[in-house]
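step=encode ok
step=design start
structure_in=
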Protein backbone atom coordinates (compact mmCIF):
# COMPACT_ATOMS: atom_id res chain seq x y z
CA UNK A 1 0.00 0.00 0.00
CA UNK A 2 1.34 3.45 -0.94
CA UNK A 3 0.93 5.73 2.07
CA UNK A 4 2.12 8.82 0.21
CA UNK A 5 0.01 11.77 1.36
CA UNK A 6 -2.35 13.25 -1.17
CA UNK A 7 -0.56 16.15 -2.80
CA UNK A 8 -2.41 19.02 -4.47
CA UNK A 9 -1.26 19.98 -7.97
CA UNK A 10 1.97 21.93 -7.82
CA UNK A 11 1.74 25.56 -8.87
CA UNK A 12 2.92 25.72 -12.49
CA UNK A 13 3.89 29.29 -13.08
CA UNK A 14 4.36 31.23 -16.28
CA UNK A 15 5.07 34.82 -15.30
CA UNK A 16 3.67 37.36 -17.77
CA UNK A 17 6.28 39.41 -19.57
CA UNK A 18 7.49 42.32 -17.44
CA UNK A 19 5.77 41.08 -14.29
CA UNK A 20 7.97 40.11 -11.33
CA UNK A 21 6.69 37.06 -9.44
CA UNK A 22 7.42 37.86 -5.77
CA UNK A 23 7.26 34.15 -4.91
CA UNK A 24 10.05 33.27 -7.35
CA UNK A 25 12.82 31.76 -5.21
CA UNK A 26 15.78 33.15 -7.22
CA UNK A 27 14.86 36.76 -8.06
CA UNK A 28 18.27 37.65 -9.51
CA UNK A 29 18.01 35.10 -12.36
CA UNK A 30 14.40 34.58 -13.40
CA UNK A 31 12.86 32.40 -16.09
CA UNK A 32 9.21 32.43 -17.09
CA UNK A 33 8.44 28.79 -16.27
CA UNK A 34 8.93 27.10 -12.92
CA UNK A 35 7.12 24.75 -10.55
CA UNK A 36 7.12 24.89 -6.76
CA UNK A 37 7.51 21.68 -4.77
CA UNK A 38 6.63 23.38 -1.49
CA UNK A 39 3.72 21.83 0.36
CA UNK A 40 3.04 18.34 1.78
CA UNK A 41 5.93 15.85 1.89
CA UNK A 42 6.35 12.59 3.78
CA UNK A 43 8.78 12.73 6.70
CA UNK A 44 10.64 10.19 8.81
CA UNK A 45 13.17 10.51 11.61
CA UNK A 46 16.12 8.15 11.91
CA UNK A 47 19.16 7.07 9.96
CA UNK A 48 17.91 4.49 7.47
CA UNK A 49 20.60 3.20 5.11
CA UNK A 50 18.71 3.73 1.85
CA UNK A 51 15.53 5.50 0.72
CA UNK A 52 13.86 2.11 0.28
CA UNK A 53 14.45 1.30 3.96
CA UNK A 54 12.73 4.41 5.30
CA UNK A 55 9.49 3.89 7.23
CA UNK A 56 7.41 7.01 6.63
CA UNK A 57 5.64 8.17 9.78
CA UNK A 58 4.71 11.83 9.35
CA UNK A 59 3.48 14.42 6.89
CA UNK A 60 5.27 17.77 6.87
CA UNK A 61 4.63 21.06 5.13
CA UNK A 62 7.79 22.19 3.33
CA UNK A 63 9.66 24.54 3.64
CA UNK A 64 8.92 24.74 7.36
CA UNK A 65 11.37 22.79 9.56
CA UNK A 66 10.04 19.92 11.70
CA UNK A 67 10.73 21.86 14.91
CA UNK A 68 8.22 24.52 13.83
CA UNK A 69 4.48 24.58 14.45
CA UNK A 70 3.78 25.55 10.83
CA UNK A 71 5.34 22.32 9.59
CA UNK A 72 2.58 20.29 11.20
CA UNK A 73 5.20 18.41 13.24
CA UNK A 74 6.34 20.77 16.01
CA UNK A 75 8.94 18.34 17.37
CA UNK A 76 11.79 20.18 19.10
CA UNK A 77 13.63 17.04 20.19
CA UNK A 78 17.07 16.06 18.90
CA UNK A 79 16.85 14.49 15.42
CA UNK A 80 20.27 14.19 13.77
CA UNK A 81 18.80 12.73 10.55
CA UNK A 82 15.49 13.41 8.84
CA UNK A 83 14.12 12.02 5.57
CA UNK A 84 11.71 13.67 3.13
CA UNK A 85 9.86 12.32 0.12
CA UNK A 86 7.12 13.43 -2.25
CA UNK A 87 5.77 12.66 -5.71
CA UNK A 88 5.82 15.25 -8.45
CA UNK A 89 5.14 15.56 -12.15
CA UNK A 90 6.89 17.42 -14.92
CA UNK A 91 4.51 19.39 -17.16
CA UNK A 92 4.18 17.86 -20.65
CA UNK A 93 4.99 21.30 -22.06
CA UNK A 94 8.53 20.85 -20.72
CA UNK A 95 9.19 17.86 -23.01
CA UNK A 96 12.58 18.10 -24.69
CA UNK A 97 13.96 20.41 -22.00
CA UNK A 98 16.43 19.69 -19.24
CA UNK A 99 14.80 19.76 -15.79
CA UNK A 100 16.65 21.30 -12.85
CA UNK A 101 15.72 20.64 -9.21
CA UNK A 102 16.58 23.50 -6.83
CA UNK A 103 16.85 23.72 -3.04
CA UNK A 104 17.06 27.15 -1.43
CA UNK A 105 18.58 25.80 1.80
CA UNK A 106 18.75 22.45 3.63
CA UNK A 107 20.34 22.35 7.06
CA UNK A 108 22.92 20.90 7.20
CA UNK A 109 24.10 18.14 4.78
CA UNK A 110 21.72 16.93 2.08
CA UNK A 111 21.60 13.87 -0.15
CA UNK A 112 18.98 13.82 -2.91
CA UNK A 113 17.56 11.00 -5.01
CA UNK A 114 15.05 11.09 -7.85
CA UNK A 115 13.32 7.79 -8.56
CA UNK A 116 16.04 6.06 -6.55
CA UNK A 117 18.90 7.65 -8.51
CA UNK A 118 21.39 9.76 -6.59
CA UNK A 119 21.32 13.25 -8.14
CA UNK A 120 22.95 15.60 -5.61
CA UNK A 121 24.83 16.02 -2.37
CA UNK A 122 25.47 19.32 -0.63
CA UNK A 123 27.02 20.46 2.64
CA UNK A 124 26.10 23.82 4.12
CA UNK A 125 22.83 24.71 5.79
CA UNK A 126 22.25 28.23 4.48
CA UNK A 127 23.14 28.23 0.77
CA UNK A 128 21.38 26.93 -2.37
CA UNK A 129 22.19 23.98 -4.60
CA UNK A 130 20.65 22.30 -7.63
CA UNK A 131 20.77 19.15 -9.74
CA UNK A 132 19.98 18.32 -13.35
CA UNK A 133 17.50 15.47 -12.85
CA UNK A 134 16.56 14.91 -16.50
CA UNK A 135 18.28 11.54 -16.83
CA UNK A 136 16.64 10.25 -13.64
CA UNK A 137 13.10 10.93 -14.84
CA UNK A 138 10.99 7.99 -15.99
CA UNK A 139 7.97 7.35 -18.17
CA UNK A 140 6.13 9.65 -20.51
CA UNK A 141 5.76 13.41 -19.99
CA UNK A 142 3.38 13.97 -17.11
CA UNK A 143 4.24 10.66 -15.41
CA UNK A 144 4.64 10.62 -11.63
CA UNK A 145 8.19 11.01 -10.33
CA UNK A 146 9.54 10.77 -6.79
CA UNK A 147 12.13 12.89 -4.98
CA UNK A 148 13.74 11.76 -1.71
CA UNK A 149 15.96 13.85 0.56
CA UNK A 150 18.14 12.81 3.48
CA UNK A 151 19.15 15.74 5.71
CA UNK A 152 21.82 15.24 8.37
CA UNK A 153 22.05 17.96 11.00
CA UNK A 154 23.86 16.88 14.16
CA UNK A 155 22.36 19.12 16.88
CA UNK A 156 25.47 18.85 19.06
CA UNK A 157 28.02 19.66 16.35
CA UNK A 158 29.64 23.01 17.20
CA UNK A 159 32.13 22.78 14.31
CA UNK A 160 29.63 23.81 11.62
CA UNK A 161 28.02 27.16 10.78
CA UNK A 162 24.78 27.13 12.80
CA UNK A 163 24.12 30.73 13.78
CA UNK A 164 21.68 31.13 16.65
CA UNK A 165 20.50 27.49 16.68
CA UNK A 166 20.81 26.09 20.19
CA UNK A 167 22.78 22.94 21.00
CA UNK A 168 20.71 22.43 24.15
CA UNK A 169 17.24 20.93 23.98
CA UNK A 170 15.54 24.10 25.21
CA UNK A 171 16.53 27.58 23.99
CA UNK A 172 18.71 29.45 26.46
CA UNK A 173 20.29 32.92 26.74
CA UNK A 174 20.58 34.29 23.18
CA UNK A 175 20.15 30.99 21.31
CA UNK A 176 16.94 29.76 19.75
CA UNK A 177 15.19 26.58 18.55
CA UNK A 178 16.97 24.53 15.92
CA UNK A 179 16.04 24.45 12.24
CA UNK A 180 16.64 20.99 10.78
CA UNK A 181 16.40 19.99 7.13
CA UNK A 182 14.58 21.88 4.38
CA UNK A 183 13.83 25.50 5.31
CA UNK A 184 13.72 27.34 1.98
CA UNK A 185 11.76 26.62 -1.18
CA UNK A 186 12.17 23.53 -3.36
CA UNK A 187 11.39 24.04 -7.02
CA UNK A 188 11.78 22.85 -10.60
CA UNK A 189 12.61 24.75 -13.76
CA UNK A 190 12.99 23.72 -17.42
CA UNK A 191 16.07 24.83 -19.35
CA UNK A 192 17.61 24.17 -22.74
CA UNK A 193 20.77 22.28 -23.55
CA UNK A 194 22.38 25.67 -24.08
CA UNK A 195 21.50 28.12 -21.33
CA UNK A 196 22.62 31.01 -19.18
CA UNK A 197 24.04 29.44 -16.02
CA UNK A 198 25.27 32.48 -14.11
CA UNK A 199 25.20 36.26 -14.08
CA UNK A 200 27.42 38.67 -12.18
CA UNK A 201 26.93 42.43 -12.42
CA UNK A 202 29.37 45.03 -11.07
CA UNK A 203 28.28 48.68 -11.15
CA UNK A 204 30.78 51.48 -11.73
CA UNK A 205 29.19 54.78 -10.72
CA UNK A 206 32.32 56.79 -11.55
CA UNK A 207 32.09 55.74 -15.21
CA UNK A 208 28.30 55.29 -15.30
CA UNK A 209 28.66 51.71 -16.51
CA UNK A 210 27.93 48.10 -15.59
CA UNK A 211 30.32 45.19 -16.03
CA UNK A 212 28.39 42.04 -16.99
CA UNK A 213 29.94 38.58 -16.57
CA UNK A 214 27.62 35.95 -18.04
CA UNK A 215 28.30 32.21 -17.78
CA UNK A 216 26.67 29.79 -20.21
CA UNK A 217 26.36 26.01 -20.21
CA UNK A 218 26.68 24.65 -23.74
CA UNK A 219 25.75 21.30 -25.31
CA UNK A 220 28.21 18.84 -26.77
CA UNK A 221 27.66 18.10 -30.44
CA UNK A 222 27.87 14.41 -31.35
CA UNK A 223 31.25 13.75 -32.89
CA UNK A 224 32.30 17.36 -32.47
CA UNK A 225 34.48 19.16 -30.01
CA UNK A 226 32.63 19.62 -26.68
CA UNK A 227 31.03 23.02 -26.34
CA UNK A 228 30.66 23.78 -30.05
CA UNK A 229 26.95 24.02 -30.71
CA UNK A 230 25.90 22.72 -34.13
CA UNK A 231 23.96 24.82 -36.57
CA UNK A 232 25.33 28.33 -36.21
CA UNK A 233 26.89 30.99 -34.04
CA UNK A 234 25.76 31.55 -30.46
CA UNK A 235 25.18 35.12 -29.35
CA UNK A 236 24.12 36.87 -26.16
CA UNK A 237 21.90 39.94 -26.28
CA UNK A 238 21.71 42.38 -23.38
CA UNK A 239 19.00 44.98 -22.82
CA UNK A 240 19.07 47.38 -19.87
CA UNK A 241 15.87 49.25 -19.07
CA UNK A 242 14.43 51.66 -16.57
CA UNK A 243 10.73 51.02 -16.85
CA UNK A 244 9.95 51.22 -20.56
CA UNK A 245 13.03 53.32 -21.33
CA UNK A 246 15.90 51.38 -22.92
CA UNK A 247 19.17 52.63 -21.42
CA UNK A 248 21.62 50.33 -23.22
CA UNK A 249 21.79 47.38 -25.61
CA UNK A 250 24.65 45.14 -26.64
CA UNK A 251 25.35 41.82 -28.38
CA UNK A 252 28.28 39.48 -27.86
CA UNK A 253 29.31 36.32 -29.71
CA UNK A 254 30.21 33.25 -27.65
CA UNK A 255 33.56 31.69 -28.28
CA UNK A 256 33.66 28.32 -26.53
CA UNK A 257 36.10 25.46 -26.40
CA UNK A 258 34.35 23.41 -23.76
CA UNK A 259 31.03 22.81 -22.06
CA UNK A 260 31.01 26.32 -20.58
CA UNK A 261 31.64 29.83 -21.80
CA UNK A 262 31.87 33.20 -20.06
CA UNK A 263 31.28 36.58 -21.67
CA UNK A 264 32.45 39.86 -20.13
CA UNK A 265 30.74 42.97 -21.42
CA UNK A 266 30.53 46.57 -20.23
CA UNK A 267 27.29 48.47 -20.72
CA UNK A 268 27.76 52.24 -20.79
CA UNK A 269 24.91 54.54 -19.81
CA UNK A 270 24.51 58.14 -20.88
CA UNK A 271 25.90 60.17 -17.99
CA UNK A 272 23.83 63.34 -17.49
CA UNK A 273 26.80 64.84 -15.63
CA UNK A 274 24.62 66.90 -13.28
CA UNK A 275 24.17 65.61 -9.74
CA UNK A 276 20.39 66.05 -9.65
CA UNK A 277 19.97 64.27 -12.98
CA UNK A 278 22.41 61.53 -11.96
CA UNK A 279 20.55 60.98 -8.70
CA UNK A 280 17.48 59.76 -10.59
CA UNK A 281 19.52 56.80 -11.87
CA UNK A 282 21.41 55.98 -8.66
CA UNK A 283 20.17 53.47 -6.08
CA UNK A 284 19.83 54.44 -2.40
CA UNK A 285 17.34 53.75 0.40
CA UNK A 286 15.80 57.13 -0.32
CA UNK A 287 15.56 56.49 -4.08
CA UNK A 288 15.86 52.75 -4.83
CA UNK A 289 16.08 52.94 -8.61
CA UNK A 290 16.39 49.48 -10.14
CA UNK A 291 17.42 48.80 -13.72
CA UNK A 292 15.87 45.77 -15.42
CA UNK A 293 18.33 43.55 -17.29
CA UNK A 294 17.24 41.02 -19.93
CA UNK A 295 19.69 38.45 -21.30
CA UNK A 296 18.82 36.38 -24.38
CA UNK A 297 20.90 33.49 -25.71
CA UNK A 298 20.38 32.91 -29.45
CA UNK A 299 21.61 30.64 -32.21
CA UNK A 300 21.09 32.10 -35.69
CA UNK A 301 18.14 34.12 -34.41
CA UNK A 302 16.51 31.24 -32.52
CA UNK A 303 15.98 31.95 -28.81
CA UNK A 304 17.65 29.22 -26.75
CA UNK A 305 17.28 30.85 -23.34
CA UNK A 306 15.92 34.05 -21.87
CA UNK A 307 16.55 35.24 -18.32
CA UNK A 308 15.50 38.38 -16.52
CA UNK A 309 17.42 40.10 -13.77
CA UNK A 310 17.90 43.56 -12.35
CA UNK A 311 20.73 45.68 -11.10
CA UNK A 312 21.44 49.21 -9.91
CA UNK A 313 24.00 51.96 -10.14
CA UNK A 314 25.30 52.08 -6.58
CA UNK A 315 28.72 52.45 -4.99
CA UNK A 316 29.90 51.93 -1.42
CA UNK A 317 33.30 52.69 0.07
CA UNK A 318 34.95 53.60 3.36
CA UNK A 319 37.54 56.34 3.84
CA UNK A 320 38.40 59.18 6.15
CA UNK A 321 36.27 57.83 8.98
CA UNK A 322 33.07 57.75 6.90
CA UNK A 323 30.88 55.25 5.08
CA UNK A 324 30.16 56.52 1.56
CA UNK A 325 27.13 55.71 -0.56
CA UNK A 326 27.33 56.89 -4.16
CA UNK A 327 30.33 59.05 -3.35
CA UNK A 328 28.78 60.91 -0.42
CA UNK A 329 29.07 60.34 3.36
CA UNK A 330 26.09 58.31 4.51
CA UNK A 331 25.14 57.70 8.14
CA UNK A 332 24.07 54.11 8.84
CA UNK A 333 20.90 53.66 10.90
CA UNK A 334 20.61 49.89 11.18
CA UNK A 335 18.49 47.47 13.17
CA UNK A 336 19.77 44.07 14.29
CA UNK A 337 17.43 41.58 12.61
CA UNK A 338 17.57 37.91 13.64
CA UNK A 339 15.16 36.72 10.92
CA UNK A 340 13.11 34.35 13.10
CA UNK A 341 9.36 33.86 13.38
CA UNK A 342 7.55 32.09 16.23
CA UNK A 343 5.74 29.49 14.13
CA UNK A 344 8.24 28.96 11.31
CA UNK A 345 11.66 29.62 12.94
CA UNK A 346 14.30 30.47 10.28
CA UNK A 347 11.87 29.84 7.43
CA UNK A 348 9.75 32.79 6.35
CA UNK A 349 5.99 32.27 6.84
CA UNK A 350 5.40 33.55 3.29
CA UNK A 351 6.94 35.79 0.64
CA UNK A 352 4.62 38.52 1.92
CA UNK A 353 6.17 38.23 5.41
CA UNK A 354 9.58 39.02 3.94
CA UNK A 355 8.25 42.15 2.28
CA UNK A 356 6.52 43.17 5.50
CA UNK A 357 9.79 42.99 7.46
CA UNK A 358 11.48 45.32 4.98
CA UNK A 359 8.54 47.72 5.12
CA UNK A 360 8.53 47.71 8.93
CA UNK A 361 12.25 48.46 9.15
CA UNK A 362 11.79 51.47 6.89
CA UNK A 363 8.63 52.56 8.71
CA UNK A 364 10.63 52.68 11.97
CA UNK A 365 13.17 55.04 10.38
CA UNK A 366 16.01 52.60 9.68
CA UNK A 367 17.91 52.77 6.41
CA UNK A 368 19.33 49.28 6.83
CA UNK A 369 19.54 46.07 8.81
CA UNK A 370 22.30 43.81 9.99
CA UNK A 371 20.97 40.32 9.26
CA UNK A 372 22.35 38.65 12.35
CA UNK A 373 23.73 35.11 12.11
CA UNK A 374 21.54 34.24 9.13
CA UNK A 375 21.83 34.19 5.35
CA UNK A 376 18.36 35.49 4.62
CA UNK A 377 16.01 34.18 1.94
CA UNK A 378 16.89 35.88 -1.39
CA UNK A 379 13.31 37.12 -1.62
CA UNK A 380 13.98 39.33 1.40
CA UNK A 381 16.94 40.83 -0.46
CA UNK A 382 14.67 41.33 -3.48
CA UNK A 383 12.34 43.50 -1.41
CA UNK A 384 15.28 45.30 0.21
CA UNK A 385 16.53 46.08 -3.30
CA UNK A 386 13.11 47.14 -4.51
CA UNK A 387 11.99 49.20 -1.51
CA UNK A 388 15.40 50.56 -0.49
CA UNK A 389 17.01 49.02 2.61
CA UNK A 390 20.72 48.44 3.19
CA UNK A 391 21.75 44.96 4.34
CA UNK A 392 24.84 43.68 6.10
CA UNK A 393 25.21 39.98 5.24
CA UNK A 394 26.64 37.97 8.13
CA UNK A 395 27.95 34.40 8.01
CA UNK A 396 26.31 32.15 10.64
CA UNK A 397 28.85 31.17 13.27
CA UNK A 398 30.29 27.89 14.40
CA UNK A 399 31.21 27.65 18.09
CA UNK A 400 34.36 25.53 18.14
CA UNK A 401 37.62 26.02 16.28
CA UNK A 402 39.17 23.24 14.20
CA UNK A 403 40.43 22.60 10.65
CA UNK A 404 36.97 21.20 9.89
CA UNK A 405 35.38 24.42 11.14
CA UNK A 406 37.66 26.47 8.89
CA UNK A 407 36.80 24.38 5.84
CA UNK A 408 33.07 24.53 6.48
CA UNK A 409 33.02 28.28 7.12
CA UNK A 410 35.05 28.90 3.98
CA UNK A 411 32.70 26.80 1.85
CA UNK A 412 29.56 28.65 2.95
CA UNK A 413 31.33 32.03 2.81
CA UNK A 414 32.18 31.44 -0.86
CA UNK A 415 28.63 30.34 -1.66
CA UNK A 416 27.05 33.23 0.26
CA UNK A 417 29.09 35.86 -1.56
CA UNK A 418 28.34 34.24 -4.93
CA UNK A 419 24.60 34.11 -4.15
CA UNK A 420 24.21 37.69 -2.95
CA UNK A 421 26.85 39.55 -4.98
CA UNK A 422 24.35 41.15 -7.40
CA UNK A 423 22.02 42.61 -4.77
CA UNK A 424 22.48 46.39 -4.54
CA UNK A 425 21.06 46.35 -1.01
CA UNK A 426 24.02 44.31 0.28
CA UNK A 427 26.65 46.84 1.37
CA UNK A 428 28.86 44.85 3.78
CA UNK A 429 30.03 41.30 4.47
CA UNK A 430 30.52 40.16 8.09
CA UNK A 431 32.65 37.05 8.62
CA UNK A 432 32.54 36.55 12.42
CA UNK A 433 30.55 37.89 15.35
CA UNK A 434 32.03 38.48 18.81
CA UNK A 435 34.79 35.88 18.32
CA UNK A 436 32.24 33.03 18.11
CA UNK A 437 34.06 30.00 16.77
CA UNK A 438 37.41 31.74 17.31
CA UNK A 439 37.24 32.25 21.10
CA UNK A 440 40.98 32.59 21.71
CA UNK A 441 41.96 35.29 19.24
CA UNK A 442 44.39 37.04 21.62
CA UNK A 443 46.28 33.79 22.21
CA UNK A 444 45.96 31.54 19.14
CA UNK A 445 47.52 32.73 15.89
CA UNK A 446 45.64 30.13 13.82
CA UNK A 447 42.34 31.69 14.84
CA UNK A 448 43.55 35.15 13.87
CA UNK A 449 44.68 33.75 10.53
CA UNK A 450 41.18 32.34 9.89
CA UNK A 451 39.55 35.72 10.52
CA UNK A 452 42.08 37.37 8.22
CA UNK A 453 41.66 34.62 5.61
CA UNK A 454 37.89 35.07 5.36
CA UNK A 455 38.33 38.84 5.26
CA UNK A 456 40.84 38.67 2.41
CA UNK A 457 38.87 35.97 0.60
CA UNK A 458 35.84 38.26 0.56
CA UNK A 459 37.95 41.18 -0.64
CA UNK A 460 39.37 39.05 -3.46
CA UNK A 461 35.88 38.01 -4.60
CA UNK A 462 34.30 41.41 -4.03
CA UNK A 463 36.69 44.35 -3.68
CA UNK A 464 33.76 46.77 -3.97
CA UNK A 465 32.16 46.29 -0.54
CA UNK A 466 33.54 46.73 2.99
CA UNK A 467 34.23 43.58 4.99
CA UNK A 468 34.09 43.19 8.77
CA UNK A 469 36.43 40.50 10.05
CA UNK A 470 35.00 40.03 13.56
CA UNK A 471 32.05 42.22 14.44
CA UNK A 472 32.00 43.75 17.91
CA UNK A 473 35.48 43.39 19.33
CA UNK A 474 38.93 41.77 19.06
CA UNK A 475 39.46 43.16 15.57
CA UNK A 476 42.55 42.02 13.68
CA UNK A 477 41.54 43.24 10.21
CA UNK A 478 38.41 45.11 9.12
CA UNK A 479 37.12 47.92 6.91
CA UNK A 480 34.58 49.08 9.51
CA UNK A 481 35.64 49.38 13.14
CA UNK A 482 32.53 47.94 14.78
CA UNK A 483 31.85 48.01 18.51
CA UNK A 484 29.26 46.26 20.68
CA UNK A 485 28.52 48.37 23.75
CA UNK A 486 25.38 47.76 25.81
CA UNK A 487 26.03 50.54 28.32
CA UNK A 488 22.62 51.56 29.67
CA UNK A 489 23.43 55.22 30.19
CA UNK A 490 23.12 57.36 27.04
CA UNK A 491 25.57 59.86 28.51
CA UNK A 492 28.19 57.14 28.82
CA UNK A 493 27.74 56.34 25.12
CA UNK A 494 27.93 60.03 24.26
CA UNK A 495 31.15 60.45 26.22
CA UNK A 496 32.71 57.42 24.53
CA UNK A 497 31.61 58.04 20.94
CA UNK A 498 30.37 61.64 20.71
CA UNK A 499 33.39 62.90 18.79
CA UNK A 500 35.76 61.22 16.38
CA UNK A 501 38.64 61.63 18.81
CA UNK A 502 36.64 60.14 21.69
CA UNK A 503 35.48 57.21 19.55
CA UNK A 504 39.05 56.48 18.45
CA UNK A 505 40.25 56.65 22.05
CA UNK A 506 37.44 54.34 23.17
CA UNK A 507 38.26 51.81 20.46
CA UNK A 508 41.70 51.42 22.00
CA UNK A 509 41.06 51.79 25.73
CA UNK A 510 37.41 50.90 26.44
CA UNK A 511 36.62 47.20 26.86
CA UNK A 512 32.88 46.51 26.44
CA UNK A 513 32.10 43.03 27.81
CA UNK A 514 35.71 42.92 29.03
CA UNK A 515 37.12 42.48 25.48
CA UNK A 516 39.59 44.63 23.60
CA UNK A 517 37.90 46.33 20.67
CA UNK A 518 41.14 46.14 18.67
CA UNK A 519 43.61 43.44 19.62
CA UNK A 520 46.85 44.86 20.95
CA UNK A 521 49.37 45.08 18.14
CA UNK A 522 46.75 45.27 15.39
CA UNK A 523 45.97 48.98 15.59
CA UNK A 524 47.78 49.65 12.32
CA UNK A 525 46.22 46.68 10.52
CA UNK A 526 42.77 47.86 11.58
CA UNK A 527 43.70 51.45 10.63
CA UNK A 528 42.14 53.02 13.71
CA UNK A 529 43.01 56.50 12.43
CA UNK A 530 40.93 56.15 9.24
CA UNK A 531 38.39 53.34 9.74
CA UNK A 532 34.75 54.41 10.13
CA UNK A 533 33.53 53.53 13.63
CA UNK A 534 30.09 51.93 13.88
CA UNK A 535 28.29 51.11 17.13
CA UNK A 536 27.03 47.85 15.65
CA UNK A 537 25.22 46.57 18.76
CA UNK A 538 23.73 48.66 21.55
CA UNK A 539 20.41 49.23 23.28
CA UNK A 540 18.66 45.91 23.78
CA UNK A 541 15.98 47.45 26.01
CA UNK A 542 13.34 44.95 27.09
CA UNK A 543 9.71 45.93 27.31
CA UNK A 544 7.06 43.23 27.51
CA UNK A 545 3.68 43.05 29.24
CA UNK A 546 3.39 40.62 32.17
CA UNK A 547 1.55 38.03 30.07
CA UNK A 548 4.60 37.73 27.81
CA UNK A 549 6.20 35.36 30.33
CA UNK A 550 9.87 34.93 31.07
CA UNK A 551 12.30 36.84 28.90
CA UNK A 552 15.23 39.16 29.09
CA UNK A 553 17.04 42.11 27.56
CA UNK A 554 20.23 44.05 28.22
CA UNK A 555 18.11 46.64 30.02
CA UNK A 556 14.44 46.83 31.01
CA UNK A 557 11.64 49.38 31.24
CA UNK A 558 8.10 49.00 32.54
CA UNK A 559 6.00 51.16 30.23
CA UNK A 560 5.66 52.28 26.63
CA UNK A 561 6.47 55.84 27.67
CA UNK A 562 9.69 54.72 29.34
CA UNK A 563 10.63 52.62 26.31
CA UNK A 564 10.22 55.56 23.95
CA UNK A 565 12.18 57.90 26.21
CA UNK A 566 15.03 55.41 26.60
CA UNK A 567 15.08 54.60 22.90
CA UNK A 568 15.10 58.26 21.88
CA UNK A 569 17.97 59.02 24.28
CA UNK A 570 20.05 56.02 23.15
CA UNK A 571 19.59 56.85 19.47
CA UNK A 572 20.50 60.49 20.11
CA UNK A 573 23.73 59.39 21.80
CA UNK A 574 24.56 57.00 18.94
CA UNK A 575 23.90 59.70 16.34
CA UNK A 576 26.71 61.97 17.47
CA UNK A 577 29.45 63.04 15.08
CA UNK A 578 32.02 60.51 16.29
CA UNK A 579 30.29 57.55 14.66
CA UNK A 580 29.66 56.56 11.05
CA UNK A 581 26.53 54.69 12.05
CA UNK A 582 24.75 52.45 14.53
CA UNK A 583 22.88 49.16 14.71
CA UNK A 584 20.21 49.00 17.42
CA UNK A 585 19.35 45.73 19.17
CA UNK A 586 16.84 44.78 17.96
CA UNK A 587 14.20 44.71 15.21
CA UNK A 588 11.75 42.25 16.85
CA UNK A 589 11.47 40.06 19.94
CA UNK A 590 13.00 36.66 19.27
CA UNK A 591 11.75 33.93 21.58
CA UNK A 592 13.10 34.63 25.09
CA UNK A 593 15.07 37.69 23.91
CA UNK A 594 12.35 40.32 24.35
CA UNK A 595 14.30 43.45 23.49
CA UNK A 596 12.75 44.19 20.11
CA UNK A 597 10.98 47.31 18.91
CA UNK A 598 8.35 44.91 17.59
CA UNK A 599 6.77 41.93 19.27
CA UNK A 600 7.69 38.61 17.69
CA UNK A 601 4.47 38.68 15.63
CA UNK A 602 5.66 42.05 14.23
CA UNK A 603 3.19 44.22 16.16
CA UNK A 604 4.92 47.51 17.03
CA UNK A 605 5.49 48.16 20.73
CA UNK A 606 5.20 51.89 20.03
CA UNK A 607 3.49 53.89 17.29
CA UNK A 608 5.53 53.59 14.11
CA UNK A 609 5.49 57.36 13.70
CA UNK A 610 7.13 57.82 17.11
CA UNK A 611 9.76 55.19 16.33
CA UNK A 612 10.49 56.82 12.98
CA UNK A 613 10.94 60.22 14.56
CA UNK A 614 13.31 58.81 17.18
CA UNK A 615 15.36 56.70 14.76
CA UNK A 616 15.73 59.38 12.08
CA UNK A 617 16.35 62.31 14.46
CA UNK A 618 18.83 64.92 13.29
CA UNK A 619 22.47 64.28 14.14
CA UNK A 620 24.46 66.73 16.27
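sequence_out=
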Amino acid sequence: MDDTPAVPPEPHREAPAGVVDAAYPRPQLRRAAWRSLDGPWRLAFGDARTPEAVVWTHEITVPFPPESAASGIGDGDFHPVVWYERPFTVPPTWAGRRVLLHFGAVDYAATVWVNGHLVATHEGGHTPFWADITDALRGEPGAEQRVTVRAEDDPWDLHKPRGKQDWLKEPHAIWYPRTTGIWQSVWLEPVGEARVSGLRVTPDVAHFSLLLEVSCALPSASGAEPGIAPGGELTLEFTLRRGEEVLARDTAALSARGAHATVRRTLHLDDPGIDDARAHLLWSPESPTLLELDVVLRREGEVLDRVASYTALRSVEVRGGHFFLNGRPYFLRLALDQGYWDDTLLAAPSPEALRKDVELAKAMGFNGVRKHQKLEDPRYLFWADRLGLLVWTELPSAYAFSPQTAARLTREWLEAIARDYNHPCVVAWVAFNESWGVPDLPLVAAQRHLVAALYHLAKSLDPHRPVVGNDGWEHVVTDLLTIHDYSRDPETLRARYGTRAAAQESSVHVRPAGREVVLTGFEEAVNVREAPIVLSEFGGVRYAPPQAGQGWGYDQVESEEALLARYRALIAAASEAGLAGFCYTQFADTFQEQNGLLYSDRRPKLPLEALYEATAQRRH
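step=design ok
step=annotate ok -> The longest helix spans residues 403-420.
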